[in-house]
Fold this protein.
Amino acid sequence: MATALDFTQMLRAAALRVTRPRVAVLGAVLAHPHADTDSIIGAVRRDLPEVSHQAVYDVLRALTAAGLVRRIQPPGSVARYESRIGDNHHHVVCRSCGLIADVDCAAGEAPCLTASDDHGFSIDEAEVVYRGLCPDCSTTRSS
Amino acid sequence: MATALDFTQMLRAAALRVTRPRVAVLGAVLAHPHADTDSIIGAVRRDLPEVSHQAVYDVLRALTAAGLVRRIQPPGSVARYESRIGDNHHHVVCRSCGLIADVDCAAGEAPCLTASDDHGFSIDEAEVVYRGLCPDCSTTRSS
DNA sequence: GCCGCTCTCTTGACTGATTCCAGAAAGCGG
DNA sequence: CCGCTTTCTGGAATCAGTCAAGAGAGCGGC
């Protein structure tokens, strides 16, 4: 498991100031993939009870801008953050319970990045959201 | 161009009551693809100045449930509605100006529906959002 | 064509996530 | 250790979307 020291180095590497709230938020995101902002605030406050939600929002934005975390916004849900970055993976969202799981890109690389007709757009990223039922909900529903 | 009569028939076919607000909303969505809720309210009020935003939200939900329109929620934007349904197409969103364009699925059918590892999920839909710069913003930025 | 049932629309208040602001506090380089 | 600059705190504001109650309107049967 990553330690506060690792987080410190990650922050420094991104040219960000190292503060207690930042280390805590970074640790929370690493520890809870796909956590929504509220959960992150809760996790952070277990270490630092006095952090304001404001600080968390601000830190998350800074981390996102620095590329240390990625922000995902599944339809019908609030913003979530994850720490797997740079590997072009996508997400499955359960229609019933909202569970999110990581999925590697269909062909192992980035086939979805190429649209058949790009309308003159210069596309630099593609995000894929699969919708369906997670194993649990699927079982419950069919039984 | 579709007429109020066509909308009436579409509503009846979907077993929905035909009301003035519904015809107007359906027409607005057909006329303005990718419009956000506010724009739709505005468009509807050009015909029926007295409709409440509530009615529009309600109608949009009814139309979505009936499968007459599709709701899309690009990250960083409010909900939008479109009338192209059932053809598995996706969207390009301009990072700079927010413009949205339709894109047919990369391989002409539905390759993106198959995830390499579905974690036991039963996937029934995939939504792809391409991110990039539209021609206008691309030109402006590079010049 | 009229009646009544039921669904839909209007009005207005409310929620919950996110953002804006100003001042206090804390990290970093020298 | 100092001072500058960024960051954090606390509180208020915004904005999309939702909830609720009562008035109004479509549809099916007569």
